[in-house]
Amino acid sequence: MLRRVAPPASGDEAAAAGSTTMPEWLETLLSTRFFLACGAHPASPRNECNMFCLDCPSPSPAFCYYCRSHRHQSHRVIQIRRSSYHDVVRVTEVDDVLDISGVQTYVINSAKVLFLNERPQPRGAGAAAGKAAASPYNCEICARALLDPFRFCSLGCKLVDTKTGGRVATVPAGEVANDDAAGGSKNVGGARPQGRRRKGIPQRAPFGS
Ligand SMILES: [Zn+2]
Ligand SMILES: [Zn+2]
Ligand SMILES: [Zn+2]
Question: Which residue ranges does the record annotate as region Disordered (predicted)?
Fold first, then answer.
């Protein structure tokens, strides 16, 4: 596995242009709320804002089908889709503009997709926790169980890794809770402690898939 031993060079990481640099619009994409009705086309049937333009810097980056044909005709536009109320994007629409290596892909409606953001997971007991414990692969950022040997569950978790220059392993598990009130700004999970399991426990994963 590729492990970074040194922090990324200080200063202009984006300009320094490694292949691991994520494009500027990615952060906007990941923080955008999609599937709201378009204010410019309130009465039209296909007015949900599920499009995102890679070429227009815009204060409201999500727009609808009609906006696309009016204002973004010659632009690179990607379409956001939904799976169980989570935003996904098709691999074919982003793999030439984004380095998606390491991100788990899923096949939904016979198309390969990526999740944009980390999905909430039930903690503690329950089916999902059992599944996570049984999976040999986990997201390096949020510890979600993965189906295949990928590093991240979503583009969001990969972005966290890119920005922090790898796993932040210095925060002991007990200290995170105390920090809640202090920060104010949302920490996007970068310092979340990894749920490390004790080594030496034989893992007998049921072969679900
Ligand atoms: Zn519109
Ligand atoms: Zn545009
Ligand atoms: Zn994750």
Answer: 178-209
Ligand nearest to the CA of 141: 3
Rounded distance from Cα 162 to ligand 3 centre (Å): 13
d(CA 207, CA 12): 45
Q: Residue 70 C-alpha to ligand 2 middle, in angstroms?
A: 10
User: What is the pTM (predicted TM-score) of this model?
Assistant: 0.68
**Ligand 2: distance of its center to the CA of 72 in Å?**
4
Q: Compute the distance from residue 108 Cα to the ligand 2 centre, in Å.
A: 27
Using DSSP's 3-state secondary structure scheme, residue 48 falls into strand
112 bridge partner residues = 107
Q: What is the pLDDT of residues 98-120, one digit of tens each?
A: 999 999 999 999 999 999 999 99
Which residues lie at CB < 5 A from ion ligand 2?
Answer: 53, 55-56, 72, 75
Find residue 87's DSSP bridge partners.
82
